[in-house]
Amino acid sequence: MGLTACVQTTTIQTPQTPQQASAPLPERAAAKQFVSVLNTVEPVAERECRARTQGANCDFKVVIDDRPGQAVNAAQTLDNTGRPVIIFTLAMISDVRNADELAFVMGHEAAHHIAGHLARKQRNAEAGALVFAGLAALSGADAQGLKDATEIGAQVGARSYSKEFELEADELGTIITARAGYDPVKGAAFFTRIPDPGDRFLGTHPPNAARVEIVRKTAAAL
């Protein structure tokens, strides 16, 4: 299954003072918060999905990756029936500082499905593979060279618009979060605690500042 992984970090920067952000919740409280946010956000995400798509499966399934040692992460994928699946690691559920952050991450992942990012990423990968393989063939590459070029082209194609996809998901995720009754700006504070990917060429994620800015602008426009 193709994964649209969004939050990828193993190092969380803690605030300098207790007033800047609350600490991670104890396990029982974190689980209770997760269920509450899920029951509130999921119906809103499904309504947005039905309103913005035609023929898409909008029956979201949210699952927890409880394997030990997994990093703070959330991702969106499809199961073998085409049903959209949102995955949270236990570390993610425990790390969020409040319900707004959890709701924003959930809305962001749902937005990836609503925007069709997995299919668009696949098309970009196929186009990149075709172009690179064609260039390799023109240069007289052998069978291994063609294979290598195809694989590299697929990677380049898949990453070409990944930053734009993340910002699109941030924008729609902001709308979902707000319509579910949570504060998306407060939720986007999660970005202030994770390593900033910067603006790297063919990077998978945009700078954190750009993500916070689009959340603020979208929330202000609602």
Task: Provide structural commentary.
This protein has 222 residues and is an alpha+beta fold. It has helices spanning 27-52, 90-95, 99-114, 117-138, 143-159, 162-179, 184-187, 208-221, and strands spanning 4-9, 61-65, 72-78, 84-89. Helix 3 packs across helix 6, helix 4 (117-138) runs antiparallel to helix 5 (143-159) and helix 6 packs parallel to helix 8 (208-221).
What's the number of helices?
8
Main pleated sheet: 4 strands, mixed
* Classification by helices and strands: alpha+beta
In whole angstroms, how far apart are the ends? 35 Å
In short:
With 222 residues, the chain is of the alpha+beta class.
What attributes does this structure have?
11% strand; 222 residues; alpha+beta; four-stranded mixed beta sheet; 8 helices
